[in-house]
Design brief:
This protein is α/β, with parallel strands linked by helices. The chain has one domain (3-143): 3-Layer(aba) Sandwich (Trna Endonuclease, Chain: A, domain 1), CATH 3.40.1350. 40% of the residues lie in helices and 17% in strands. The protein is built from six helices and six strands, in the order E-E-H-H-H-E-E-E-H-E-H-H. It has helices at residues 29-43, 45-50, 62-70, 106-115, 126-138, 140-143, and strands spanning 3-6, 15-17, 80-82, 88-93, 102-103, 119-124. Strands 2-6-4-3 form a four-stranded mixed sheet, sandwiched between helices. Helix 1 (29-43) runs parallel beside helix 5. The protein is globular. The model is unreliable at 1-6 (pLDDT under 50).
């Protein structure tokens, strides 16, 4: 998959969880994701049952990309999606965000999901993503 080499500049309309000033050694994004999903399934098994991670990463041939798009793959889909009345949409990045980049379409996807009424955030590390989840669970609109 093509990356745009966009520096990690956070749009002001998206909520960021985690310490944007952290620099240093930290787990890779996939390890953070595994930890998040393990904690989610342990603490909130009902949510763990429906939470998904769209598999958009990886290199593909032109033909594979065309087929996957035809099958419903969406450019920029975030790392964590929990479908609910008010969906939880979270793009998980490394704690040291300077070690990563936004993929093509990610910011556009997050912005559109937010405009459609989803709880949207960017989380720097699994613990930040879990804090976002806890905030989502206590969000006034989610409780209705």
């Amino acid at each position: 998959m093509h990356t745009e080499n966009k520096k990690m500049r956070f749009p002001p309309h998206l909520t960021i969880y985690g310490n944007k000033d952290f620099r240093g050694n930290c787990p890779v994004e996939s390890a953070e994701q595994v930890t998040f999903f393990n904690l989610l399934r342990k603490k909130y098994p009902n949510l763990g049952t429906i939470a998904i991670h769209p598999r958009n990463e990886g290199k593909r041939s032109f033909q594979q990309t065309a087929r996957h798009k035809a099958e419903g793959m969406t450019k920029g889909a975030p790392d964590i999606i929990i479908p609910a009345k008010y969906p939880f949409i979270c793009e998980l990045k490394r704690r040291d965000h300077t070690l990563g980049r936004f993929e093509t379409g990610q910011l556009e996807y997050l912005t559109e999901a937010q405009e459609q009424g989803a709880f949207v955030c960017i989380a720097l590390g699994y613990d930040a993503a879990f804090q976002a989840l806890e905030d989502w669970l206590t969000h006034k609109e989610f409780q209705q």
